[in-house]
Amino acid sequence: MTAVPLFDLRGICKEFPGVKALDDVSFEIRAGEVHMLVGENGAGKSTLMKILCGAYRADSGSFFSNGEPVTIADAADARKFGIAVIFQDFTLVPYLDIAQNIFLGREFPSRLPGFIDRRRIYSEAKRVLETIGFDIDPRPPVHSLGVAQQQMVEIAKALSQDARILVMDEPTAALSDRETELLFAMIARLKAKGVAIIYISHRLSEVFALGDRITVLRDGRKIADLLPAATTPNELVTQMVGRPVDTTYTRPARPTPGEVALEVKNLSGPSGISDINLTVRAGEIVGLSGLVGSGRTEVARAIFGADRVSEGEIKLFGERIGGSIEDTTTRGMALIPENRKTQGLALARSVADNIVLVGLRKLFPSGYFMPGRAIKAARAMIDKLRIATPSPRRPVGNLSGGNQQKVVIGKWLNADARFFIFDEPTRGIDVGAKSEIFRLLDGLVHNGAAVLMISSEQIEIVHICDRAYVMRSGRIAGELAHSELTEANIVRLGIHQ
User: Fold this and answer.
1) Helix 177-192 to helix 147-159 angle, to the nearest 10 degrees?
2) Contact in structure between 325 and 494 (CB atoms under 8 Å)
3) Mean pLDDT lowest for which of 2-6, 162-166, 213-217, 423-427?
4) What percent of the chain has pLDDT over 70?
5) I need a surface site. Which of 237, 298, 332, 423 has the fewest CB within 10 A?
């Protein structure tokens, strides 16, 4: 470790209307080090990194490169210092192809003036993708990819810039175990080459497995700089949230399941799912597990009516449904989607607008919208879910990822849904909020609702669910009763050929 940091932020302050996002935060970045940045949602982690990469301008504070004072006014300044960021929320252009996204703004010129060398763009994109073990044709448009594949494109895009400082914001949130292993191996190679890596994660196992140093933020202030060997997971969580938190949440006593809430028979569709059969009863949480790309999200979307079904039958509380989202939502079905920004929220609208959106008919049966009643309902849900926002009128796009997820859940609770599909409900959620989400699920089923829960975190499936289905290659590979529900059995069913 060199005496002078590769890059240094000192006394950084940033304020948004009604919120002091960063208050006198200092942060050192050293070559060849994995520096873990942790804290609850809304602690200021992403804001600090956006200032580092030039997306935001600090209200006050100083920057130093190798001990010399410098200025970062915009993203171009940050790139001069080799700073690249992989944001938790993708920065890809959906209708450009993979290669065009990787080299967007840095295209190779052709010999002919005014033209770009497309052949070189595709060959270089292929090379970068291969370095991270992602074997894919770089020509398909990004919108045709799954979330995990889009995450790999984001990683390739950042690495193509020959970064000296690489920021990773929840990079494994949408990756399978195999893809995560490839990412960790890649981090080790970059570290050996002297690249400084800033790694934001809510997964404590990653913090202790990868980190050389840990910085804790809470409510916009730096709470501690720690060495992994000098602390424990429980001590770190206490630093993050300011109170003791049980990180090993296990469901309390399970109620006896009631009537069949969802019954799916022989469901197939053009999205790649085939012969899906499953049931979910009122008062139980049923897991849907499997590797990323196994068809879990496609099943959820087909059940909800978002994707077309070619054959099969779906019954909700004994009545046949299907064909449209309007039909499923009217009958009490809710989908908390994998990608909250593009599928779960109206980002330009306020927190209150998003919360009351689905339940408008319930709140205003006369058909007349009353702003006061809407704000009152939104405030009640904000308090119930502990959504960190200065006002119900704040644009939901300005909230942290975890608080945005709470808004998505809140809008369905406000609509009195009876059957819930949770697709990766804790993706990008901090350790303190995870327990809140799990207790929320328990409360739903205790009151007679039914839950189908998709998660890439096998430990969540094991501890939260009453039983689980495991998918492989678009089909149900098997069902695990509660007594059989172990990580080993999930893996066995998910990868067995």
Assistant:
1) 10
2) no
3) 2-6
4) 94
5) 332
The model's pLDDT over 298-310, given as tens digits with 9 standing for 90+, comes to: 999 999 998 999 9
| Token pair recorded at residue 198 | 């800033």
- 260 vs 198: CA distance, rounded Å: 47
pTM score, whole prediction? 0.63
Distance CA 81, CA 79 (A): 5
Which regions of 439-482 does DSSP assign to beta strands (E)? 450-454, 467-472, 475-480
* Cα distance from N-terminal residue to C-terminal residue, the chain: 47
Residue 264's closest CA among 311, 312, 301? 312
- The better pLDDT of the pair 236, 24 is held by 24
Q: Evaluate whether 248 touches 417 at the Cβ level (below 8 Å).
A: no
Residue 84's φ and ψ, nearest 5 degrees, are: -130, 145
> pLDDT digit string (tens) for 122-155?
999 999 888 777 788 999 999 888 777 787 888 8
The closest alpha carbon to 183, from 151, 219, 216, belongs to: 151
- Total length of the chain: 497
Phi/psi at 260 (5° precision): -70, 120
The whole-number pLDDT of residue 319 equals: 92
431 with 237: CB under 8 angstroms?
Answer: yes
Q: In the chain, pLDDT over 90 holds for what percent of residues?
A: 44
Task: Answer for the pair 390, 42: CB distance below 8 angstroms, yes or no.
Answer: no
Q: Are 332 and 419 in contact (CB under 8 A)?
A: yes
Side chain identity, residue 77:
D
H/E element holding 166? strand 165-169
470 and 456 Cβ atoms separated by less than 8 Å? no
Give 223-236 pLDDT, tens digit per residue.
999 999 999 888 88
User: Position of tokens 């919120």?
Assistant: 19
Residue whose token pair is 């989400």? 437
Number of CB atoms found within 10 A of residue 184's CB: 14
Which amino acid would we find at residue 416? D
Distance (Å, whole) CA 355 – CA 365: 17
Edge-to-edge strand ranges of the sheet holding 83-86:
83-86, 165-169, 196-200, 34-38, 213-218, 221-226
Q: What angle do CA 444, 267, 344 make, to 5 degrees?
A: 45
